Amino acid sequence: MTDLTALTIAAAQDGLRRKEFTAVELADAHLAAMERARGLNAYVLETPDRARAMAKDADARLAAGNPRPLEGIPIAVKDMFCTQGIRTTACSRILEPFVPTYESTVTANLWRDGAVLLGKTNNDEFAMGSSNETSCFGPVISPWRRKGANTHLVPGGSSGGSAAAVAAFLAPGATGTDTGGSIRQPAAFTGVVGLKPTYGRCSRWGIVAFASSLDQAGPFARSVRDAALLLRSMAGHDPKDTTSAERPVPDYPAAVGRSINRMRIGIPKEYRADGMSSEIEALWEKGRQWLADAGAEMIEVSLPHTKYALPAYYIVNPAEASSNLARYDGVRYGLRTASDEVIALYERTRAAGFGQEVRRRVMIGTYALSAGYQDAYYVRAQRVRTLIKRDFEKCFAAGIDAMLTPATPSAAFAVGEKSAENPVEMYLNDLFTVPANMAGLPGIVVPAGLDRQGLPLGLQVVGRPFDEETLFSLGAVIETAAGTFAPQRWW
Amino acid sequence: MSVDAKTVRDIAHLARIAVKDDEVEDLKGELNAILDFVEQLAEVEVTGVEPMTSVTPMTMKKRTDVVTDGGDPEAILKNAPAREGDYFVVPKVVE
After folding, report:
1. Cα(A232)–Cα(A314) distance, integer angstroms
2. Do the Cβ atoms of A189 and A163 come closer than 8 Å?
3. Backbone φ, ψ for residue B48 (5° rounding)
4. CB within 8 A of A344, min separation 6: which ones?
5. What CATH number is associated with residue A14?
6. A161 and A60 belong to one structural domain
7. How far is A55 from A110, CA to CA, in rounded Å?
8. Contact status, residue A224 vs residue A446, Cβ threshold 8 Å
9. How are beta strands A297-301 and A264-268 bridged, if at all?
10. Which terminal CB of chain A, N or C, has fewer other CB atoms within 10 Å?
């Protein structure tokens, strides 16, 4: 029998339906791979009993001839999604003892469609980070290494565990959340496909809230088709999230392989950032060529407020985070540091429970929202955000179907390389991904090549609101031209 | 704009996070690095630009004002670090 962990979701579906293997065998193969890969620290909780029980149920349905859309497909879930009866921590000490009594809508949708939970994956604490180094469970080690070196590299973040799990064949697909690039940047760093849907496409209900006007759930997978299969199940209207869109869910997999002939692709000139590496520039050029070869038209466009997206994001994001994280008070759930005075109880609990990056963001957000500073910081940032969105709208109104950009300014860096004193150095990783969150637009990252050191690089396509289908069509063209990339196993 | 040590302590108190004396200097540096970075927003012309309130055009949804959930104190209190009967416990706040 072939190695079951090497299969894409689409191939696993075929195999299950042809009875070449069972869902229990598929789950077991992944559980065994997870055990061998514990050194990567991709999972913070393995759920073998739940996985086998769900797989057994899937096998019964497969045997009865009525499989659901993702019947028997094993999935890794980022620890930001509440899972009923299964510890959910957001990788923060403040939630270490938390066991939800409810299930997030996105994961409930996956189980409704027959998927099987393998475990919960590591992430930056409360999804605040771009390297997965702020997790209270410690960093995730990327399955990728530089050619001829054994330095530990980061998988990116915040969804570093999900990205590493998919890249290292510890799950064929995974969920992530993306507030400023937390799906797309780790996808680029680990050579997998990652998609952030349009704001409102997936319900945020039951996802640990970070920055509510920016957060979106999305899939990781090893192929564009697999990402489309996952999104079809994850997306949909949810009355429990008032920002969730009341629109039907299209048949996303049908968009994979659709012609992109005559599509108009914007190449935003402002993304040619100063000091862009020649490798990233060359990769971008290759991407333009691939899409042009498939019949699309490349058009240089201008998004004049691009350079302000990141600074505006670092006001809006901490402001919303400081408000959302006010709920961690040591009273209703989570960690509590005893005190005989209530304010001291809050202060000590939060000092003990929050890591450095979380504390920093809550404080910046508190400052940006405090009396006398709100107009200068928060309101100004929200005005700039309107301008950023308007830049995109003008391009789309002029007939642009989607934008092609690099995914990240560089390939993955080493563990410890950027987590030093100045937090802004880490923030710059999100340069190319943040604008889509600020404008609420969907973005996909597809692996597009390896750099000189043998590390994966990705290209990003940003689309019109609710036009994920075009992203899947364009992503599939890039994937076909670039091929796929997998790390050499050393773990 | 930049913050001094006193402002760092004030923000920490507003944020309800206890900060030790020997942490204030480092925090000041971190916060000022971020404030320096966002300073460039001051150069954007925003006169007459509406601040964003909703990233996708949508009207606030309303539902019928009826109870759809609740009545399950056990589920609510399951993760409470301290409880007494059906109540959360906090230190005494009134004399």
Report:
1. 31
2. yes
3. 80, 0
4. B18
5. 3.90.1300.10
6. yes
7. 13
8. yes
9. parallel
10. N
How many residues are present in chain A?
A: 491
Which range of residues forms the domain containing residue A72?
Answer: 4-262+405-482
Question: Catalytic: A212?
Answer: no
Is the Cβ–Cβ distance between A440 and B56 less than 8 Å?
yes
Q: Decide if A311 and B41 are in contact by the 8 Å CB cutoff.
A: yes
B residues 42-81 near A, CB within 8 Å?
A: 42, 44, 46, 49-56, 58, 60-61, 63, 75, 78-81
B94 CB within 8 Å of a chain A CB: no
To which H or E segment does residue B24 belong?
Answer: helix B24-38
Amino acid, single-letter form, for residue B72 = D
Find residue A443's DSSP bridge partners.
A196, A462
Nearest Cα to A482, choosing from A461, A462, A463?
A: A461
ipTM of the complex: 0.95
DSSP annotation of A376: I
H helix runs in A120-234, sequence order: 160-167, 184-190, 224-234
Query: DSSP letters of A31-48?
Result: HHHHHHTGGG--EEEE-H
A352 and A430 housed in the same domain? no
The distance in angstroms from the start CA to the end CA of chain A is: 23
Decide if A250 is inside a domain.
yes
Assess if residue A146 is contained within a domain. Answer: yes
Domain boundaries, chain B: 5-42
- Residue reference for tokens 């009826």: B66
Using a CB-CB distance cutoff of 8 angstroms, which residues of chain B are in contact with residue A364?
A: 31, 34-35
Edge-to-edge strand ranges of the sheet holding A456-463: A43-46, A116-121, A74-78, A173-178, A216-221, A193-196, A443-450, A456-463, A402-406, A264-268, A297-301
Q: pLDDT tens digits, chain A, 491 residues: what are they? A: 579 999 999 999 999 999 999 999 999 999 999 999 999 999 999 999 999 999 999 999 999 999 999 999 999 999 999 999 999 999 999 999 999 999 999 999 999 999 999 999 999 999 999 999 999 999 999 999 999 999 999 999 999 999 999 999 999 999 999 999 999 999 999 999 999 999 999 999 999 999 999 999 999 999 999 999 999 999 999 999 999 999 999 999 999 999 999 999 999 999 987 678 899 999 999 999 999 999 999 999 999 999 999 999 999 999 999 999 999 999 999 999 999 999 999 999 999 999 999 999 999 999 999 989 999 999 999 999 999 999 999 999 999 999 999 999 999 999 999 866 688 888 888 999 999 999 999 999 999 999 999 999 999 999 999 999 999 999 999 999 999 999 999 99
Q: Do A9 and A56 belong to one domain?
A: yes
Count other C-beta atoms under 10 Å from residue A481's C-beta: 17
Alpha helices in A247-330 (DSSP H): 278-293, 306-324
A378: which DSSP letter? I
Q: Which residues of B touch A465 (CB under 8 A)?
A: 56
Tokens of A48: 């073998």
Chain B residue with minimal CA distance to A98? B79
Which spans in A130-216 are helix H?
Answer: 160-167, 184-190
